[in-house]
Amino acid sequence: MAFLRRQGFRRWAVVAAGIAALCALPAAVAALPVPASALSAAQLRARIAASGGVSYQGYAQSYVDLGLPSLPDLSNVISLLDGNTSQYVWYRSPGSWRADQLTAAGENDIYQTSRGTYLWNYTNNQLTRVVGSQPVRLPEAPDLLPPELARRLVGFASRATRFSRLPAQRVAGVDAAGLRLVPVDSASTISAVEMWADPRTGLPVKVEVFGQGEAAPVLVTRFLDVRETRPAAATLSPRPGPGIGISTTSLPDATGILNGFGPSLPGELGWIRRVANPSGLSDVAAYGAGFSRFAVVPLPARVGNAAFSAASGVGTTITLANGTAVVVQTPLIAMLLARAPAGQVYLLTGAVTAPRLEYAAARLLDSM
Predict the structure, then answer these.
(1) This prediction's pTM
(2) What integer pLDDT is reported at residue 249 of this predicted model?
């Protein structure tokens, strides 16, 4: 009997040792050196920019710390840009994907299909089909996914932006090559952007954005799990079950909403030139270049006055030659609300310093 007990103990000891080895395997793999990629910074940049056709599926987490104030009608955007966001994503192409944002109450899903965009609200048990295009829209959770954000930032860079390679990192099992972007305009609040991507396909798997004077990134987004495989078509199509409410809504005409709230915006604000804007939106403009670009939006009276009042409680009020303004500066984004003597309110915002927006706002009100 003692011999049998010893034999049984040995067998269980072998089993326990095997389990311990399996548990330690991920940590051991993560500790292995990451092979360096021979790609140049220009080559890696090109692959990242062209990665929109790479299919993938995975789980990503984002952290943003911008310190944005609470503003009317923007609670969802504020929470997205000030906290943690977790989402699953299935991506086949720019026109066929699905992203599920996890929330405390459940999840909010976005389906992009050939038949339009579908929004699934778990809390309300409601599926909504959205009809129409969106030349201008507020940020959404999928904008924080590493591939989408990295491609946007690479495309946003000007000719003067400096690109260099970073040491490779292993991200979600991918031996990712690193790329660093450094804006050269002193008015930009971004000191550097660091990203890592699969050197074979260019698929970005991690992005970090640093504000001026900040040792730690103010925005981090990365995959915790990712596979570069084509998701099944059935996964990307909403399939409402019994009892699910289904509705259809048309996007409001952005041209009618955003145009017509004051004089047309000028072609220049001092020495800062206006750049191309979305088709049909003559009263929404972008000025500047590269990472120092900022937007100017005329606001409807109710929204403008409410936003000006809310910003006054957390920002700095300044007096301009032809009006007043409130400035809110965060580590990455500055917002300025300028009010003309006639009462028209303009929103100026971008990853630029407050003095740049103050200069632009003064020139804007002078031109009205």
Answers:
(1) 0.81
(2) 67
